[in-house]
Amino acid sequence: MKRKKLKVSKPRGSLFPIAKQEAMAEGGGDEHMAQHHSLTINVNDQCAIDAGYWQECVEEDQTPYRLVSPPQTTMYRQVLSYLEETTRDEKVPPTSQLHFGEVAIATVALCIRWGSYFAVLANRDLPQWAAAYDPEVSCIGDGEMARINIEASAALSDWIDLMRADQQLFRKLVRAAVRFLPFPIAQLGGSTYYRRFRTLGAFNSASGRQYLSDAFARDFG
Questions:
Q1: Residue 75: pLDDT band by 50, 70, 90 thresholds?
Q2: In 3-state terms, what secondary structure has residue 23?
């Protein structure tokens, strides 16, 4: 039986070094003899999530590396459970009180910022690596990017399924995510997002593009 783990060469503070995916056979490899070091991410004062663990390992040529393994319960599911528990006794916000900007913020914060391996790379509780600004050093490896893509895609799929299956719970969780998950643009007004995303969304449909074309022709000749 095979399992996927993230293999990194050596620690570097808040950013792990160049990484690659390695298929490790169950019961084999020196990683089973190494000590497990837990990876814990503090979302806020009330929520800490398990991001997996890392182990010090050595290649056959004695090159050291760290093997990073994901948690048993996905980071997305842990954050979602926290939001569900936090809002269990709160009322469902009316549809009219939930704007697109909030949904966008909640989606990115839950599925990517805190619900994927990206939270490990962006962990401010760890010291900054001295070579983080070296232009010749990669700030993220292929294996790390692959894990983020997989975890974020799975989280987004589950989030969309929840939106379709239970609108009331979805609205509660959106409002909770905006309120409780730290995110740099969570405080901007809904009207700002509405104007911005309506403009961007217009390009995604033929009628929208035609409307913009007609508007430019009318206003600018």
A1: very high
A2: strand
